[in-house]
Amino acid sequence: MAAIKLHILKPSVNNMSARVFIRAAKLDFAEDDAWGKTRSPDFLTRNPAHLTPMMEFDHLPKGVMWESCAIMQYLCNKHHLDKFYPTAPEARAMIDSAMFYIIGTLYPYIARATYPALGFPQYAGEVGASDASPEAKAAAQKAAAAALEEPLSVFHKFYMDGKPFIGGHEPSIADIRLAASLEFLAAIDYDLPAWAKTYMAAIEKALGSAYTEPAADVRGYIAHVKSQKK
Ligand SMILES: N[C@@H](CCC(=O)N[C@@H](CS)C(=O)NCC(=O)O)C(=O)O
Predict the structure, then answer these.
(1) Which domain covers residue 44, as residue numbers?
(2) Is residue 224 domain-shared with residue 131, that is, in the same domain?
(3) What is the pTM of this model?
């Protein structure tokens, strides 16, 4: 039996991040498709946040953990995967900063801009989840898409700053998280800047099937959703 079990939802880029990483790191793992199971009594007992990716691993104090970035950080720490997560405090600080910026700033914009097109529920308290008019919801979605430009430019100019990846010459866990997040932008045919297209192609080339296999699930879902709208 594999040491690590990853409970996943295939159309999700939060999940894609952990799925790409675990393959790229060549760890021994098994995946369980959690579709339709995340609110079951058994899942909620283990994970009251009902979020995937959820990693099940005996060594953890509670047997499971969630949050894609924390899972990647933990596995790097556990298996000394320094190439994905450098140990020098300053280099590590930049990877952590980039990942927090993705989760705290970039991803909420991505979710508000793409979840309506993907058919995913939006977060409570947001326009998209309210009983606002279709026009107000469309305006909120448009505003979120417009807001993407700034954080994207920050990744390019500040974190990459002339290097191919946030991690330097090799993709780091922050790069895996960023590239996976950007996959959802295809759902709204977002016009990615040229550097971002080059960046995503470089990640895919560097990671090979570790990237393309989980990406195929996300891309397949987006293609399916788009085909339903024709
Ligand atoms: N910040 C979290 C987000 C996790 C998340 O939102 N997971 C969603 C899928 S995209 C989920 O599992 N939803 C199932 C549910 O809430 O029942 C991460 O990066 O792992």
Answers:
(1) 4-79
(2) yes
(3) 0.97
